[in-house]
Specification:
Distance between the termini: 18 Å
Number of domains: 1
Low-confidence stretches: 153-164, 170-177
Helix content: 40-55%
Order of helices and strands: EHEEHHEHEH
Strand content: 15-25%
Structural class: alpha+beta
Mean pLDDT: 86
Number of helices: 5
Largest sheet: 5 strands, mixed
Number of strands: 5
Radius of gyration: 17 Å
Length: 177
C-alpha cells in the first residue's frame, strides 16, 4: 500500500525539516513504514504562493476522512453519545477508535495532513497567523510511504461480514469516489 502525507514542520533549512520528519517516522511507535520518500520537489516553503492552498487542501482531506468514519459509524447504528455504551467490539469500535485518533492528534495511516509542530491534524489560529506573518522556516513536506499489504488490503471478504475495509474508506474520503 502506497500512502501520501503532507507534513507541516519548522526548521532553519529544508534539510533540517526533512531530518525532523524522518526522525519522527523512524521513532514513531504506532506505524512502521517499509519505505519513506521525501522528494526535493515535494518540499514547499510557506513563503511560496501555493503553500496556503496546499495546507488548506490537506486539512480538508483530513476532515473528509473523519467525516467518512463518522458517516460509516452512523450506518453501524452509532448516532448519539448514548449509542457508544452499546457499541460492539469490532468494525464499529475500530472506526470510533480511528476517528478519535484523528481528533486527538495521533498520526495514522489515515492521516493525510499532519502538523508536526502542534502534533495535530489541524492548525491552530495562532500558528496559522504566525505562518502568515513570519513564513520563514515553515515548510510542507510531501511524504510518500509504503506499507506491506495485510489481509485487509487484499480482495478477501472483510472479517465479521464488514462491508468495507479501512483502506476503502480512506480512498473514498480522499478521492471522493
Amino acid at each position: 500500500m502506497i500512502l501520501h502525507h503532507d507534513i507541516l514542520v519548522k526548521g532553519d533549512t529544508p534539510e533540517i525539516c526533512r531530518n525532523r520528519v524522518e526522525r519522527f517516522f523512524s521513532s514513531y511507535q504506532l506505524i512502521r513504514y517499509d519505505s519513506l520518500t521525501i522528494a526535493d520537489y515535494g518540499i514547499l516553503p510557506a513563503a511560496t504562493p501555493d503553500f496556503q492552498s496546499r495546507l488548506e487542501q490537506g486539512i480538508q482531506k483530513n476532515r473528509d476522512i473523519l467525516e467518512s468514519f463518522l458517516t460509516e459509524l452512523s450506518h453501524e447504528h452509532v448516532a448519539t453519545l448514548q449509542d457508544l455504551a452499546d457499541i460492539r467490539q469490532g468494525y464499529a469500535s475500530a472506526l470510533l477508535h480511528t476517528a478519535c485518533h484523528i481528533l486527538d492528534g495521533f498520526f495514522g495511516i489515515d492521516t493525510f495532513f499532519y502538523n508536526l509542530e502542534e502534533d495535530s491534524h489541524w492548525v491552530t489560529e495562532q500558528l496559522s497567523s504566525r505562518i502568515k506573518t513570519e513564513p520563514a522556516g515553515y515548510y510542507l513536506l510531501a511524504v510518500t510511504a509504503s506499507l506491506a499489504a495485510t489481509s485487509r488490503d487484499r480482495d478477501e471478504e472483510p472479517p465479521l461480514g464488514h462491508r468495507h475495509t479501512f483502506r476503502e474508506h480512506i480512498t473514498k474520503a480522499i478521492f471522493k469516489t
